[in-house]
Specification:
The protein has helices at residues 2-5, 58-63, 139-162, 171-177, 180-188, 198-201, 223-226, 237-242, 339-357, 360-363, 367-383, and strands at 10-13, 19-20, 26-28, 33-35, 40-48, 55-56, 67-73, 81-91, 99-109, 257-260, 262-269, 275-279, 288-291, 300-306, 315-322, 329-334, 397-400, 406-408, 433-437, 440-449, 457-470, 481-495. The protein is α+β, with helices and mostly antiparallel strands. Among the domains are: 68-133 and 229-255, no CATH class; 299-356 and 388-414 and 424-495. The strands form six sheets. Strands 2-1-22-21-16-18 form a six-stranded antiparallel beta sheet, with no helix packed on it. Strands 6-5-11-12-13 form a five-stranded antiparallel beta sheet. Strands 14, 15, 17, 19 and 20 form a five-stranded antiparallel beta sheet that branches. The structure holds zinc ion (4 copies). The site of one zinc ion has 8 residues, from strand 7.
Length: 499
């Protein structure tokens, strides 16, 4: 867990205002912007079992309740259970005076030593199955609910078939979908509007018993108050939630848990709907078909050294910058925009987005056109990305940025093994560039912690401008285009020493 709790020193700001380390970000080559997990849509590519690597279609996975039927997890520690073989001697049914020896199978956890024998499960005669299934106390209720909603889904599908010949994008198509036509008809007739369309849709389906709340709660057994508690016999909350249908309180009632299936996800930019990540479907492959991670496109910033921070006293900070692309890049350092500039920029960006979303909504008049515009803008909104938001971080230090720009040569994997020296010659200012090697350079900056927060965390930020070569061929331009892109970088340098 320590890995997840580790403090991130360098974070980049996404358009949506969230701050993420570079390895959690994507770069959309079509929008030429950084995207975080909130700014991409997540789609399931395939379901698979992480232990036996079986690949399942999504319909099959649903049928198997998203669990692998062959693999089991330990109910005590969630480690995968393995099968043990033991010889079982029993009386021969044909000749009771003789005994026969057969193989018996039971499940064992190699991590915590839990076995299926602890749960009182008899040894099985085959390695693959027949393990006792847990009885779900509410199975009847759940299956009746499932039946009901399956009926509803079938009905909706039928209605969709009926509507197939209505031209798409017409008012009728949308109005039927959202039940607007019945609403309007009722309004015209002077009737009160009915509740959402679900009630009407359910007619003709088997009646569903409504759930009933009960006040009666089973009293606790007397032994709870009189007998001392043995904690080793009580399950932990995590163990109970692994078996959410039963939630056993006693460790002897723990049964093996079917291993939950994992999914491979593909990620799509919500602004332009291009993929930023697409894995290969085979569960045994860890490769990607599309892999637009930010650390392949955006220069990486790392803190090398930082002098002790004292409020009001400048400290030297050395950053290592690395160019991950196949093209030379020029880096410049710019101060962060002031809060007023930030607000103005945000407002402009928001206005632009609103204009893009609903160009029809303004000009149209009359009820019918209005409804179309509303519905159209609604559907467009669903696919559009996150609104730009300000970055919610308080900067508690100033940073003196180098005025000259730094050029980084392209990445060359062979250069790692080349001790002879760099083939690139740059005339750097030794006050700015401490050293450079291949596609990396160390840049000196000066940090001045503000005096108002002694002992607090020093956070500084700057705008990193980098030239990016877009290799996606555009319609009108054949040659790759070089553009200057900007990203906000925030550094958490630790607390100041003393007052
Ligand atoms: Zn984002
Ligand atoms: Zn499996
Ligand atoms: Zn275990
Ligand atoms: Zn995009």
């Amino acid at each position: 867990m320590a890995f997840f709790l580790q403090k991130e020193t360098v974070k980049l700001a996404c358009n949506c205002g969230s701050l993420k380390p570079i390895y959690r970000l994507y770069f959309c080559r079509h929008c030429q912007k950084i995207r975080c997990a909130y700014c991409v849509s997540h789609e399931v590519e395939s379901h698979y079992c992480s232990h036996c690597l079986e690949n399942l279609a999504s319909a099959d996975a649903r049928l198997k309740r998203n669990c692998c039927t062959n693999c089991n997890d330990c109910p005590a520690c969630s480690h995968v259970l393995s099968v043990r073989i033991v010889p079982v001697t029993s009386a021969d049914p044909d000749d009771p005076s003789r005994t026969v020896t057969r193989k018996g199978y039971y499940l064992v956890c190699s991590f915590c030593r839990w076995t299926s024998r602890d749960a009182g499960m008899p040894d099985q005669t085959s390695a693959t199955g027949g393990w006792a299934e847990r009885e779900v106390p509410h199975a009847r209720r759940i299956s009746s609910l499932l039946e009901h909603y399956k009926g509803l889904a079938a009905k909706e599908r039928q209605e969709k078939e009926k509507r197939k010949y209505v031209p798409r994008r017409s008012y009728l198509h949308f109005s039927d979908k959202f039940g607007l036509s019945t609403l309007l008809a009722r309004k015209r007739a002077g009737l009160a509007p009915q509740g959402p369309g679900l009630k009407d849709d359910a007619s003709g389906l088997p009646e569903l018993e409504p759930a009933e709340a009960s006040e009666g709660v089973e009293p606790l057994p007397e032994s709870v108050f009189s007998e001392p508690l043995d904690l080793s016999q009580v399950t932990t909350m995590a163990q109970r939630l692994l078996q959410v249908e039963v939630q056993p309180a006693d460790v002897r009632r723990l049964l093996p848990v079917h291993k939950p299936l994992l999914v491979k996800r593909s990620l799509r930019c919500r602004e332009c709907e291009h993929n930023v990540s697409k894995p290969e479907t085979s569960p045994s492959s860890t490769k990607f078909k599309i892999q637009l991670f930010a650390y392949y496109h955006v220069p990486e910033v790392r803190v090398v050294t930082c002098e002790p921070l004292l409020a009001g006293r400048p400290a030297q900070l050395v950053l290592k910058l690395c160019n991950p692309t196949q093209h030379q890049t020029t880096l410049s350092f710019l101060p962060l925009p002031s809060p007023e500039e930030d607000r103005r920029e945000l407002e402009l960006a928001l206005q632009e987005r609103r204009k893009k979303r609903a160009p029809e909504a303004k000009g149209s008049a009359g009820g019918r056109e209005d409804a179309t515009a509303v519905v159209q803008s609604f559907t467009r909104q669903l696919s559009a990305g996150e609104d730009p938001r300000p970055v919610a971080v308080e900067v508690t230090g100033d940073v003196v940025l180098p005025e000259c720009s730094v050029v980084l040569p392209p990445r060359d994997d062979a250069a790692e093994y080349d001790d002879v020296g760099d083939s690139h010659v740059f005339h750097d200012d030794p006050k700015v560039v401490a050293w450079r090697k291949a596609n990396k350079a160390a840049v000196k900056l000066s940090v001045l912690p503000r005096p108002e927060a002694p002992g607090g965390e020093v956070v500084v930020g700057f705008l990193l401008q980098y030239s990016y070569v877009n290799t996606i061929p555009a319609l009108d331009q054949r040659t790759p285009q070089t553009q200057d892109l900007r990203v906000r970088v925030y550094l958490s340098l630790g607390p100041t020493l003393g007052g």
